[in-house]
Write a structure and sequence with these properties.
The chain has 97 residues and is mainly beta. The chain has a domain of 53 residues: Roll (SH3 type barrels), CATH 2.30.30.30. Helices cover 6% and strands 26% of the residues. It is built from 1 helix and 5 strands, in the order ββββαβ. It has a 5-stranded antiparallel sheet.
């Protein structure tokens, strides 16, 4: 029984099969834990099942798009481009009188 890892909403874990997931809801009064895998699949576990599995706490993924079912080009921004270099400063064209 794995009593060392307490489920916390917002924390990421990895199960023994290598799947990453986040705790999205935890109802301790009913003993239910709702998890969402990186691909967006949602599953509900009871606390007995949670503690029987060997979970490993992990860092959140850098690429947050997995559960959103979108491609990198659909983010709406180019994460590689330096936008701050292309922004015009209105004070550059300010005409002192």
């Amino acid at each position: 029984m794995n009593l060392e890892i307490t489920p916390n909403v917002g924390d990421w874990y990895q199960n023994t099969s290598g799947e990453s997931f986040e705790i999205v809801a935890y109802d301790s009064s009913q003993g239910l834990i709702e998890i969402q895998y990186f691909d967006g699949t949602v599953e509900e576990l009871d606390t007995d099942t949670w503690y029987e599995q060997m979970m490993v706490a992990i860092e959140p993924p850098e690429d947050w798009s997995g559960s959103l079912d979108i491609e990198k080009q659909d983010y709406g921004v180019d994460l590689e481009e330096n936008y701050h270099l292309s922004i015009e400063n209105p004070l550059d064209t300010f005409d002192e009188q």
